[in-house]
Design a protein that fits this description.
Number of domains: 1
Order of helices and strands: HHHHHH
Shape: elongated
Number of strands: 0
Strand content: under 5%
Structural class: mainly alpha
Oligomer: single chain
Radius of gyration: 17 Å
Number of helices: 6
Helix content: over 70%
Length: 126
């Protein structure tokens, strides 16, 4: 859980930085829709922050929500990067780190889910 929260904090910081730099974009969409894009990022950051406040007794829900919200926010960041790398350039090393960690986490979660499904039904993978 601590690892996930650390990744969520880093992702929020990256997203906030990217949102602040959107007005400098050379991409027409981001220049024209700068405020809309900033608002979407801000809402996603707030949802991720709210998710960290879910009580510990709901840890499975908290983990799932945090994982999905972090992944959603990272997808927005990567979309911005693909369309205008200059906006994300100052944070690219941190973005790459979070992206790699998300891939590792996704693989681990899928292995755990496969294991649980196999335990419930031994013929699950057949």
């Amino acid at each position: 859980m601590n690892r996930l929260e650390a990744q969520a904090t880093l992702t929020r910081a990256i997203a906030t930085s990217v949102a602040a730099r959107l007005h400098q974009s050379k991409h027409e969409y981001f220049r024209l829709q700068c405020e809309v894009a900033k608002e979407r990022i801000k809402r996603s950051v707030q949802k991720l922050l709210d998710c960290s406040k879910i009580p510990d007794e709901s840890s499975f829900q908290r983990i799932g929500n945090m994982f999905l919200l972090k992944r959603h926010l990272l997808n927005i960041i990567l979309f911005v990067h693909e369309n205008d790398p200059e906006v994300t350039k100052p944070r690219w090393n941190a973005i790459k780190l979070v992206e790699d960690l998300v891939e590792d986490d996704t693989n681990e979660w899928m292995e755990i889910l496969d294991y649980i499904q196999t335990m419930k039904n031994p013929h699950y993978l057949n």
